[in-house]
Amino acid sequence: MLITGASGFLGSALVDVFRRAGFPVRILVRASSPRRNLTWTDVEIAEGDMRDPAAVAAAMRGQRYLIHAAADYRLWAPDREEIVRTNRDGTRLMMQAALEAGVERVVYTSSVATIRPPADGVTPSDESMPLTPETAIGAYKRSKVVAERVVEEMVARDGLQAVIVNPSTPIGPRDVKPTPTGRIIQEAALGKMPAFVDTGLNLAHVDDVAEGHLLALRKGRIGERYILGGEDVFLSQMLADIAGIVGRKPPTVSLPRAAVYPVAVFAQLAARVTGRQPFATVDGIRMSRYRMFFSDGKARAELGYRARPYREGLSDAISWFREAGYLA
To answer: Pick from 324, 169, 321: which is nearest to 246 by CA?
Structure first.
């Protein structure tokens, strides 16, 4: 089995799940990828970029299954189209290599970023509500939409044996970068988020999302999409729960989005100078107009997927951040 993205947050959880299930695991990682999560002694490491045809072909050789979880997960980049190119073209190359290598089954890690958020802000969306590239907000969402379409087209046209999973927002341990949501948890735990905007997320423990990939490999229908989610949570509640875990007072100030836009613009300008990812982005503020609430009913019914209470993910994330020195 080949797993991509294994040095990252979800990817490392995937390796643990498939190892425990008895699969021999090979991982494809870039030479520049962080090695903090690569602690296994029984995992074969193939070095290379998912956009390098020779490296991908070599890594794919002899593998029965592919779990393609690698992606450029940024809400901002100096060159926005770089995110689209990486996720679209890298996915196409991986899927083509899987076809040429005779891989029996693929699980492609998409995202709920490809699904339209609820119009009323309350009723959870499901797999029957896809976004189009034109309606996706920001380069990251658009990149995931077009990459998902690549997989769907190859299933229909080329007979690619792929199942698509759409994780919501994973939280938990080993978030080394951290992800945009992990940064919210980190900053809130440090008491650096005194206010919030009115929005909401669907939060799931990263290990449950990883388990959902195993279920999709075993039980998923070819060409189908499955949301791997957890609980729908208002951002204000999430911040209050973080405050409760670390023993701080929860923020109580709700800001209008108009007040946050200038902060995001300044943060992006500063990022061009520092090279560091901005904490607030214009696309992130635009996305916050919608509550990202989703239903994982299909995955529960067809795969047997289950998710633990989201507060366990918060607690595990904070514990890991603390032990790893992120909360010093």
So the answer is: 321
Residue in 174, 169, 173, 172 with CA at minimum distance from that of residue 113? 169
The pLDDT of residue 149 is 98
Query: Any bridge partners for residue 254, and if so which?
Result: 196
Q: What SS3 state is found at 216?
A: helix
pTM of the model: 0.93
- Compute the distance between CA of residue 321 and CA of residue 7 in angstroms, rounded to an integer: 17
Q: What secondary structure does DSSP assign to 241-288, as a single string?
A: HHHHHHT-PPP-EEPPHHHHHHHHHHHHHHHHHH-SPPSS-HHHHHHT
Question: For residue 247, what are the contacts with CB-CB under 8 A and spacing of at least 6?
Answer: none
Average pLDDT estimate for 50-56: 95
Domains identified in the chain and CATH numbers:
2-178+202-231+293-311 (3.40.50.720)
Question: Which pLDDT score, from 0 to 100, does residue 300 have?
Answer: 98
